[in-house]
């Protein structure tokens, strides 16, 4: 019954969170959604209209901010923000604020602490390369940008949010660009990560592949 960590990285809409949740459930371990943490901070920065070039204001806000998970809910300063952080604005703010060193330093430290004492599945952009370089299992999930936009578009439609497929595709490609070209911990496949292209694969097929990998490797 040894402790182990699974790092899942990849671009927006590759299915990371859906898959990570499934894997965590099957293995009875915790799931940590690091994107939700950047979204929560981005959401709060937007709500407070913080000028991102004002480092003092930024530091002050970060000091007074608490992000946590409880029974699958994302908590921002104790308030459940699951839906508030899923809007297109919050997505953009998350991507923008995730390039700020102050934000990354705070969240990466928190993420490492969360994975220290227990087995977790953690998903994001820099988990295998930066947050948990010693993770026992590393997966890099990809899919074509059209397929990823298609999935996100359906998700947004189900939630009744108004956006066109073209908007969603542009949004995804812009975030890919931001996430892969930023200086600080850009999205990259770790050398020792297993790459899985999920284009045309079902959720259960991808989940099964990862579970097999973990069961073989333990
Ligand atoms: O995964 P999700 O789309 O919820 O992440 C929102 C944004 O947070 C991403 O576009 C990315 O800019 C940022 N992020 C990050 N590092 C992570 C997880 C997310 O920079 N580990």
From TrEMBL:
Any one GO MF term held by the record is: CMP kinase activity
Q: Enumerate the subcellular locations listed in this protein's record, separating them with semicolons.
A: Cytoplasm
Q: What is its EC number?
A: 2.7.4.25
- Protein residues bound to ATP: 10-18
Any one cellular component term from GO for this entry?
cytosol
Q: Which positions fall inside the Cytidylate kinase domain?
A: 6-215
Keywords noted in UniProt = ATP-binding, Cytoplasm, Kinase, Nucleotide-binding, Transferase
Q: SUPFAM superfamilies, from UniProt?
A: P-loop containing nucleoside triphosphate hydrolases (SSF52540)
User: Which biological process terms from the Gene Ontology are attached to this UniProt entry?
Assistant: nucleobase-containing small molecule interconversion; pyrimidine nucleotide metabolic process
**Coiled-coil segments on the chain, per record:** none
| The keyword Calcium belongs to this UniProt entry's keyword annotation | no
Q: Which InterPro entries match?
A: Cytidylate_kin (IPR003136), Cytidylate_kinase_dom (IPR011994), P-loop_NTPase (IPR027417)
Q: Which reaction does it catalyse?
A: CMP + ATP = CDP + ADP; dCMP + ATP = dCDP + ADP
Please tell me whether the keyword tRNA-binding is annotated for this protein. Answer: no
Q: Report the NCBIfam families cross-referenced here.
A: cmk (TIGR00017)
The UniProt entry's sequence similarity note says: Belongs to the cytidylate kinase family. Type 1 subfamily.
Q: What is this protein called?
A: Cytidylate kinase
Question: Whose protein is this, by species?
Answer: Aminipila luticellarii
Q: What is the lineage of its organism?
A: Bacteria, Bacillati, Bacillota, Clostridia, Peptostreptococcales
What's the gene?
A: cmk
